[in-house]
Design a protein that fits this description.
Layout lengths: L1 E6 L14 E9 L2 E11 L4 E2 L4 E2 L6 H23 L7 H11 L7 H12 L5 H21 L10 H13 L4 H21 L10 H4 L3 H6 L6 H8 L6 H16 L3 H6 L9 E5 L5 E5 L2 H10 L15 H14 L5 E2 L9 E2 L9 H11 L4 H8 L5 H15 L6
Antiparallel strand pairs: 1-2, 2-3, 4-5, 6-7, 8-9
Helix pairs in contact: 1-2, 3-4, 10-12, 10-13, 10-14, 14-16
Length: 404
């Protein structure tokens, strides 16, 4: 299947090419057949880039319009996949009918729709509720501006959640506040989905990917050094599981987050240090210890898409394999549950990529690495996780008196 976008070319009665507000069309070709579908987007001829098949960045509102075109392209791919796995004949008629069922309603962009959400519901909200939603709107705007992460429905996934939670943490938000903020975002996304504007459902995993506030406010999860070593030495013939093990351990030894790992390029891994670049600007340099170097050497002569330093893997896939490996190596010490009111769980049930930085902090503190150095490595000043882990270590030291 081939998908292309082009701008309609038509002449007026005098034979001159029309140039103002020309419709953008999507052409889908498969099996010798072609389907032409209107996108609902109109753009001046000089605002269209025929090589990229997208609207030029100089054109007003280009970003939201291009996001819409990318959404249609993705839905076209899902339409073909659904038809190929069904009993229906794949032809232009069946494709067009199913595409129209699957595609979302047109909106001029995420933030325009968010504003519509506020204005259409404000009459039934209290002043406090309106201020809360308006604060989220402004926060998301600020996040996009500072992080460089483009907010669109198709981009609201696990990677977005990690970046957004980190952004809130760096602003001094308590985890309970961030949790409520994400809850408000899910409220808007549910509204958008019910109204037919959003067809992407990854956001429904947000609650599973976040720790409940009560647990986070007490103590971050982490692996003790011996647990980390057992995971590092775990043997498997499963290639994906092996990669999940290596990538997670590299994060634990380097003190970097999953999103930062995914953004590492070949040139960011030097002989003895990792260069971590934030999307919104800023760089930090992390010296590599021998454990991180061992993992780096394993992948440095292999090549991946976009010159990535490591193979690509979704955070959901990594979490799945971490739990399988954790069970196999006996990580059964009890930890708090993901939701308040539930029974405590064995550690392997709650293993996620998100505890890698906690693991780095915990073991660095036990090695007497100064707090300010640890915060510099993790890139989060006044990191609340450091304070909570120090508090826990202090309590453990005091218990030594009980043994006398």
């Amino acid at each position: 299947m081939r998908i292309r976008f082009n701008i309609e070319k038509r002449k007026d009665a005098s034979g001159n090419l029309l140039s103002a507000e020309r419709p953008v069309l999507m052409s889908v070709t498969f099996g010798g057949e072609r389907v032409i579908i209107g996108t609902g987007v109109k753009v001046d001829m000089n605002g269209w880039n025929p090589d990229l098949q997208r609207i030029q960045s100089s054109y007003p509102g280009y970003q939201s319009l291009n996001n819409w075109l990318e959404s249609l392209q993705e839905i076209a791919g899902k339409t073909m996949e659904a038809l190929e796995h069904s009993d229906n004949e794949v032809n232009p008629v069946s494709f067009r009918q199913l595409f129209q069922q699957l595609k979302p309603k047109y909106s001029s962009g995420f933030f325009d729709l968010f504003f519509q959400f506020m204005e259409s519901n404000s009459s039934s909200w209290s002043n406090a509720t309106y201020r809360k939603v308006r604060t989220l709107y402004n926060l998301l705007r600020e996040f996009e501006d500072q992080s460089g992460y483009v907010i669109a429905f198709q981009n609201l996934n696990a990677l977005f959640l990690e970046e957004f939670v980190t952004f809130c943490s760096e602003r001094g938000y308590k985890h309970s506040t961030t949790y409520k903020t994400v809850n408000n975002l899910v409220w808007f996304l549910n509204w958008s989905t019910d109204k037919g504007y959003n067809v992407y459902r990854e956001y429904r995993q947000f609650y599973k990917l976040m720790d409940a506030p009560d647990d986070k406010s007490q103590m971050p999860l982490f692996l003790h050094w011996d647990e980390l070593m057992r995971l590092k030495e775990y043997l498997t013939d499963n290639r994906r599981m092996e990669r999940a093990r290596d990538l997670f351990c590299f994060m634990c030894f380097a003190g970097i987050r999953f999103s930062e790992l995914q953004n590492l390029r070949k040139e960011d891994l030097k002989a003895d240090e990792v260069v971590v670049r934030r999307p919104g600007g800023g760089v930090r340099f992390i010296p590599m210890n021998k454990y991180a170097r061992q993992i780096h050497h394993k992948y440095e002569n292999k090549y991946y898409l976009n010159k990535s330093a490591f193979p690509s893997m979704s955070i959901i896939t990594m979490n799945k394999y971490l739990r399988l490996m954790g069970k196999n190596i006996g990580l059964t010490r009890e930890v708090p549950p993901a939701s308040a009111g539930e029974d405590r769980l064995p550690l392997y049930r709650r293993l996620t990529a998100g505890i890698a930085v906690n693991t780095f902090i915990k073991n660095a503190l036990e090695m007497d690495v100064p707090v300010e150095i640890i915060s510099g490595f993790t890139g989060v000043q006044n990191d609340s996780r450091v304070r909570r882990i120090i508090s826990d270590l202090t309590r453990e030291e005091m218990k030594k008196f009980d043994l006398k």
